[in-house]
Amino acid sequence: MGSDFDPDGARLPIKLDSTSNGEFAPIPLDPTLRRANALASDAAGTMARRLGLGRRDFLVSSCGAASTLLAFNAAHAAAGRSGGFFELPAEAAAEPAAAEAALGKDEWIFDVQGHFVNPTGAWLKDVPAGAKPLQMEKTRCGLSGFSGERSYLQCIGPSEFVKDVFLDSDTDIMVLSFVPSTRDGEPLTIEEAAATREIVDRMEGSKRLMLHGRVNPNQPGDLEDMERLKGFGVSAFKTYTQWGPSGTGFWMTDDVGIAFVEKARALGVRNIAIHKGLPFGPRSYEHSTCRDIGPIARRFPDMNFLIYHSGYVAGKDEGPYDPKRSDGVDALITSLREAGVKPNSNVYAELGSTWRFASMRDPTSAAHLLGKLFKHVGEDNVLWGTDSIWYGSPQDQIQAFRTFQIAEALRDAHDYPRITPELRRKVFGLNAARPYGLDVAALKRTAAADTVARDRETYRERPNPSFATYGPRTRREFANFARWSGGEP
Questions:
Q1: pTM of the model
Q2: Can you tell me whether residue 406 is helix, strand or coil?
Q3: How far apart are CA 276 and CA 266, in angstroms?
């Protein structure tokens, strides 16, 4: 897998930084979060010495992840962020058996929101000469010795994508999704995504990657192109209601939104994935909110509406349900309630970026967010997504969710459920199997002995995770990425 990415053990296995997925401006860490990283770094050094391990070796182990999560608990508790916490014993930081018991579960994990950037794609034609998009520590790997101004992008190419997702994490299946863009400015086109899927599919037909088809019905040509996208075997059509070629978004209940759903239904694709929340900025902000979701779901009860990001707004706290709030998760809940769309029906809440941002930065917000979704959208209708590879390997997000618990005080006060192993299994994959039409038992049998499974077993004898993130970390990087993909910052 190449040379060690971080020989000195400078990076933590649970990645807490300002990285965004390119759909919202990065938000710097506050003092508590910087303190959390500092505590985790100090604890890693202490525990590595106690166990007689090198710092990097300790951080790659389960004890390294446990130690980091425990340090985050301490920092959050000191700041009064105690509504949620990572539930694992203190001895997990030093005892491999305890760490494995907490972090080494064997759920079937279906990540319904993953991303991949073609390192030689057409999107680079609009990048100014001399610019270095997505240049980061990860892209200093040995592959970057290839000739060419941006050969370093090979380090996040197809082989490294497979490593990050399927070797360095416990992910079993992923859906490749898309970012908002003009028709000729996509960082990943459907053709390129299909080629990436084939890389994995050639591994004895494991079928570990599925595809979305990006459709913005307010953009000329997109509705007409849906039949061609269907030919690639897309499992859902993905749209961004805040996005538009003129800077103005649309509602799903507008004529173009209704035409979009009707065309998908006619093509036999029952899943409509809708980006809601994570607003791009003030322009057309209202279209990033969820007020149209209840009405469109009621109008088309035979269609599934997968609300990507669940309406969450990064940087705004999630508290108890407030029917007066016009954005965030509360706006999704209100829209469903007013339209009479009951929990566990045809609206699903997806956690890509939402889970990473909320759980890492404020576990009280994360506890309210999950509690409200379980209560009002339904325990059977919350979907696992990570928005990786923007956040690097999704393993840290998996480990965080495996151990996260809603505090008893919040559960009692707001009738939130305790997060049980059964509920985790639902969120990690079983819930999404229903709208995506997957036979979990059959997929498990196929994957158990495929090339990915064998490679994973061999790789984990000497794992070499990068612990790196790939998305923009500053407002300038965010603006450049949006501009280069044909959007607006």
A1: 0.92
A2: strand
A3: 24
